[in-house]
Amino acid sequence: MPWPAFLECRGETSVKEGTVYVKGLHFANALHRYKPAGQAWKYRGKWTTYCPTTRLAFKNVDRLRPSDDEDFWNIMREAKNADINPPTSFADLFMSVYRERLPRPSCLYPFRLQRFGGWQSVVREHLQAGEFHGRVFHYDINRAYRWAALQGLPDVRSAYWTCDVNAPYAVYLARVKPDRIPYHQGAGLTMITSEERDAFQLHDAMWPLYGLAFRNSVSLADAFAKIDTRFPTSTKRIGRSFWGMWNTREAPEQLSWKHGERVREMKNPFFNPIWSAFITSRIKIKLASVYEHALHIYVDAIHSTVELPTGTADGDWRLDGIYDRAWFRSPGYWGEGPCTIRHSGRASLSEVAGSSEPDLQYA
Residue 109 gets which letter from DSSP? Predict the structure, then answer.
C-alpha cells in the first residue's frame, strides 16, 4: 500500500493518495466517501480495512492503539524506515521480521477448539468482609509475554504423537483431577503442557486423550532482536500483543464488489494453539508459584501480602506500588489505601507521610 500513511483529516472532501487511518466509530463514514468498490475486510463484525481504489486504503487505527498522534507517527516512521507497508496491527510489525514455515495443520487439529487468556482471581481466603488490613504489594512481570516466548517454543514440524504421560517435551489434551491447577476450574478437556505437568505434579492426575511430543524447539530471539532495532518505540507493545495471532482460528471476512458484492470467510494461517498454550501457561505458572501470598491476580500482575524479589530483566517481578490496605469492590478492581507509592523497584513507606486517603479504584 502506498506511503505516506496519514490520519483522517476532518472536513476534507477528498483524500490524497496513501493509507488513511480512521477510528472505528468513524469507519462507516469513510466507506460512504466512495461508491462500494475494490475490497474490504471485517473482523468480528467490525470494519478493519477498505481499499476503494488501487491508490487508497482506509485502515482502523484502533488496532494500533496509539496513545496520541505523536505515538502513532513514531510507529509509522519506524515502519517506513523498515521498508514495510503501513501496518494494520502490532502483529504486522512482528511478522515483518519473523518469517518461518507454518506448522502442519494435522498437528494442530486436535487442539483447534482451545482458547487461551489471562488468569484473573480474587483469593477470598485472605479477605475479611471484602477488606484486607496490612501491607499490600503490587507487582507486574516485566515483559511477560515476550519473556514467556523467549524461553523457546516447540518446533511443531518435529512433532510426533505420543501416549507417554512422562514425555519430556510435550503437550496434551487431557482431563485433570479437580483443584490440581489453581487457574483451571471445572471438568472437561484442557490443554496441558509438559511444563504444567511438572510444575503441578500431574503425572498421576491427568488422563490424556491426545499427546504430542517434540524433538526440537525454535527461538524467537533473533526476531525480537530485530524488533528492538527497527521498532524501538513500539517494541514493548509488540511483545505484549504478538502472540494473539496464534490464538484464534478466525481471520477477517473479505468483501469484494468487483463482480457484485461477495463475502468470503478467511482462515487465520498463523493459528497455533500449541504455542499459545506454552506462552500463556508459563505466565500462569509463575503467578501460581506465589499464589499462597496472593490477594488478587490479573493476567501478569499480582497483589501480594509479602515482598517478592524484583529485577529488571524480562520475566522478573517489578514493584508498582505498596498500599497500607486494600478492599474488594468488584471483580478485578481494588481501592488504593493511604501512603501509596507508585514507582518501579523497591519502595519504602517512610518516603511518604501524612497522605490523605484517596477514594480510587485500581484495575
Answer: G
DSSP 213-241: EES-EE--HHHHHHHHHH-TTTHHHHHHH
DSSP H or E run through 347: none
Inter-residue contact 148 to 240 (CB < 8 Å): no
Q: Who wins on pLDDT, 60 or 326?
A: 60
Residue 179: predicted pLDDT: 86
Which pLDDT does position 16 carry in this prediction?
A: 75
Question: Are 247 and 273 a contacting pair, CB within 8 Å?
Answer: yes
How many other C-beta atoms lie within 10 A of the C-beta of residue 362?
17
Rounded to whole angstroms, the Cα distance separating 165 from 348 reads: 47
- In DSSP notation, 18-55 reads EEEEE-GGGHHHHHTTS-S-SEEEEETTEEEEEEEETT
Q: Is 196 helix (H, G, I), strand (E, B) or coil?
A: helix
Cα separation, 199 vs 201, in Å, equals: 6
DSSP state, residue 277: H
Name the H helices within the chain.
27-31, 69-81, 90-95, 105-108, 144-150, 194-199, 221-230, 235-241, 273-288
List the strands of the sheet with 18-22, edge to edge: 5-7, 18-22, 56-60, 46-53, 39-43, 253-256, 262-264
Residue 339's φ and ψ, nearest 5 degrees, are 55, 45
DSSP 250: B
Torsions phi, psi for 191 (to 5 deg) = -80, 130
Question: Is residue 351 within 8 Å of residue 341, measured between CB atoms?
Answer: yes
Higher-confidence position of 66 and 151 = 151
CB neighbours of residue 192 within 10 Å: 25
* Of 210, 226, 225, nearest in space to 113 by CA: 210
Q: Does the pTM exceed 0.70?
A: yes
